[in-house]
Amino acid sequence: MEQPSSVAPQQAPLKLNMKRTFIIGFAFFGILLMWQVYDNYCSSFLSELFIEAFGLKWTTPDEHKAVAEQVQWLVGIMMAIDNIAALVMMPLFGRLSDKTKSPLGKRMPYILVGTFICAVAFPFIPLAFHHHILGALIPLMAITVFSAMMYRNPAVALMPDLTPKPLRSKANGIINIMGYIGGAIPSVLGIFLSLSSYLGTVAKPKDGQLNNLWVIEIPFLIASVFMVASVVVLFFKIKENKISEEIADDMARGEALAEVADSVADDEEKPMSKANKIMLFAILGAEFFWFMADNGVSTFLSNYTLYHLQADTSQLMINTIIGGLASVVGFAIAGFIAAKIGRKWSIVSGLVLTALAYTAWLILSLALKPDGTFPIYIFVIFFFKGFGMSMVHVNSLPMVLELCSAKKVGRFTSYYYASSMAAQTVTPCALGLLLMLPNFGFDLLPLYALSCTVVAAALFFLVKNIRKNETFAVGLEAIGEND
Fold first, then answer.
1. Highest mean predicted confidence (pLDDT) among 153-162, 392-401, 453-462
2. 384 in the Ramachandran plot: left (φ > 0), alpha (ψ -120 to 50) or beta?
3. Helix pair angle (213-237, 168-192), 10° resolution
4. Phi/psi of residue 16, each to 5°?
5. How far apart are CA 363 and CA 105, in angstroms?
6. Which residues contact 30 (CB under 8 A, 6 or more apart)?
């Protein structure tokens, strides 16, 4: 008679549900689409209206650059004020969504309400600029950012809610790919609907006549339509409560395989261990500085192009697409690289590559005088910078979420985004003030970004590189839905 085996059967590797992850990515698709439009236009909207409000006059491109630099400190403050409120709102909605129980799930109520408010307010921003109403432009920007913060944290938390810990880097890669596809849409539109063409020319000031509103209105309208459409797809395809029940066993297995210094307690009131707390603070500190660099560049790049290079902003949109394509490549492979060398060294590698890209930009920016065209070398630099930062973004959020239980995903997501929003609050003000200095102009934008990136890389060496001796499905084996 055959004796029963005393060896437990080996469990099948955890597999990422690709279809579900792509659908969850629709939330990030709408978020990045909106933010790309916001960054592409709003700092320049503010610059032009502040120049007008202070009665600053100019007749040549060099004079335009000079008066624009004079108001950047105020542009930076206005771009930062919204983020200050977001520092309060993101943790608030993270905690609220963690504790929410509804027929729609924990996150969906906040995603639906926030998206609706944001989509309604967003198209009125260019309308306020078109009619030179600074007093309407600033509140509309604030409403947009506040409502976006209401749904951003819950939307991002949805992926880790429904993905086991070891698979989150790969899942985050897919989420970010969806986001960058969204971000590419306004960039493509910007090639044909550039701010430079709306302003007429950078060689002369506005003469008081109204330009073609649709040049700047269409990107905002399309962003609102896509935001609503993406959330509708998410609402009908992702049933939070049902999926959570179906994957409970896989989530438990993932919890046991977390890459942390000490095990994570499921008890909400139990404090973090000292080792895990050090890891958390190191990751968040490094994140603060790489977002200081990244957001500093994205906030002022339109003004850099318009006032320093004195170039058509349609070329900037091509640059954004090139950087986005490099990011998509990075998102697609970053999870596999992390499986080989660990998340820590994947992030450090990405930061080093980004720092090298900023170094090349700085050298060339100082060596070559602007001639009214968009330099080809910037396309190459932003390709490598995009790839490097994709390695960072894919792995950093999963590293933070490794340090919490499923009951605290919203809270720890808010820590991650609070760090990034703090950076996005400080960096516009810091750069705006620096641009007031006599010897600091737009040409030193890459120096600022390089300095912040180097600090981020240094801080990340405090993070432990912890890898489990377990095998997970990769490549084609990882593709497929859980049974």
1. 453-462
2. alpha
3. 150
4. -80, 130
5. 51
6. 115, 182, 226, 227, 229, 230, 231
pTM, full prediction:
0.69
Nearest Cα residue to 365 out of 469, 449, 430, 447: 447
Residue found by looking up tokens 């969850």 in the block: 24
When pLDDT is cut at 50, 70 and 90, the band that residue 476 belongs to is very low
CA distances from 325 to 127, 349, 356, 380, 385 (A): 31, 19, 19, 12, 11
Q: In the Cβ-directed half-sphere of 435, how many Cα atoms lie within 13 Å? A: 29
Please give the structure tokens belonging to residue 412. Answer: 């720890």
SS3 label, residue 479: strand
Distances from the Cα of 290 to the Cα of 390, 419, 420, 454, angstroms: 12, 10, 9, 8
CATH code of domain 18-466: 1.20.1250.20
Residue the block writes with tokens 């502040």: 50
Q: What's the half-sphere exposure (Cβ side, CA atoms, 13 Å) at 120?
A: 8
Q: Which residues pair with 479 in a beta bridge?
A: 16
Nearest Cα residue to 414 out of 151, 172, 166, 164 = 151
Residue 197 has pLDDT above 80, yes or no: no
For residue 34 the two structure tokens come to 């909106």
Spans of all domains in the chain: 18-466
> pLDDT tens for residues 219-272?
999 999 999 999 999 999 999 889 888 888 888 777 666 555 445 555 556 677
**How many other CB atoms are there within 10 angstroms of residue 288's CB atom?**
22
Question: In percent, how much of the chain has pLDDT > 70?
Answer: 86
